[in-house]
Each structure stands twice: as C-alpha cells, then as structure tokens.
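Students often ask why we bother predicting the structure of a whole assembly rather than each chain alone. The short answer is interfaces. A chain on its own may look different once its partners are present, and contacts between molecules only exist in the joint model. In this exercise we take two input lines together and write out one structure for the complete complex. Read the inputs first and try to guess which parts will touch.
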Amino acid sequence: DQQVKQNSPSLSVQEGRISILNCDYTNSMFDYFLWYKKYPAEGPTFLISISSIKDKNEDGRFTVFLNKSAKHLSLHIVPSQPGDSAVYFCAASARSGGSNYKLTFGKGTLLTVNP
Amino acid sequence: EPEVTQTPSHQVTQMGQEVILRCVPISNHLYFYWYRQILGQKVEFLVSFYNNEISEKSEIFDDQFSVERPDGSNFTLKIRSTKLEDSAMYFCASSGQGQNYGYTFGSGTRLTVV
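Now the answer. The structure tokens for the assembled complex follow.
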C-alpha cells in the first residue's frame, strides 16, 4: 500500500541547473509534508516541509510546491550543487488528531549532480 | 544543533538472540519513534511513543518487539528473538511541537542477524 510514491528512482542533473524531485500521495488525510535528504549509512536529514494550507515554501535553494487537488508535491533545488547528490525522501503526516505524528515515506529518489 | 544519538552504530547478532538498540532523543521532545530501512527499500514506520506509552505501531511491530523509556532520557527498542529478516538499519527519531515539530532522526544502527 504505497500511500506516498516517488516514481523516479533516480535523477541526474548538471551542476548549476535545476533539480526537480516529484512525489505523489493518495491519502487525503495527509496534511503535512516533509523532504529529507539521506546519505548512505546515515539517518534522514530534514530539508524542508510544507503544511497543506500552503502551496509553496522556500528556504534558500530549496522550494517545495504542493498541489493538493492533484495530491502532488515537488522539491526544486536551484542551483544544484555536487554536494546535493544523495537520496531524497518525500514523507507525509496526518497531524490533526492522534497522539503521534508518524511519517509515511516514499521509496526515495537518488539525485546525482554532475560537476 | 540538538541531535538524536543512537548506539551502537553496528550490531551483529546470531539468529534467536535478543538485541537492544539504544537512542537518546532530543531532550525537550515529547514524541519518540522507531523506523527501519531494509537494504534497498524505503524507510518504514515501526512504532511511536508518547506520554510513556505506545501511541501507534505498525504491523511489522509484532510481539517480538518492545520499546521502553527507562530513565527519562534513553529510548530503547528490544527485539526478543531476532530473525534473519530483522537485518536492517534502525532509525530512532524524536519530535516536539511546532511548524515542523523538529522531527529529527538519529544516524541509525545497522543490525545484522547471522
């Protein structure tokens, strides 16, 4: 049951160009979305998040866009740098109600930024 | 910057043995979690813990698994009788309240069951 889907297992871009990573979700109860970056043998590192009441959130080179009607979000990295090369995970949470905020992860997209 | 600390970084155990994975969450966080990632697969939720009790667990978290917060700082995951398929990276996470509630992961424990 893939409630969060990242359909591109890998993406390769040139340094300085834009990287666009996509994520789709099926559970309409999700109201908070996060992007994590992960290097091998390390834990996921938080990058940026967005609440369902917004359609865009920007933090430096990273921007996340949310299209609720399409149940789609994307992470834009501009300009891409070689140090951005990592696996990027999309995660979603249903914050309203309950006593926990478990995250449901996508399978990840391996981004390679070529010098 | 506050960190979630996990020990050990790598644990090798024989099938059928008990293992305890340890975590020190961020001190002012209220919610604690365990996730795991089998090699090549996605990160999967195991269990969440709040107010000294389990608030949710996944179907993976069967009777062989248990969690405990024994002393107000540590958060442990115990696997009573390990199986080969328990081999994975286990990540502890903690979160508080707020915009992204500071959801922070530890660097993981690689569990290898032989």
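Check your guess against this: Chain A touches chain B through 24 residues (CB under 8 Å).
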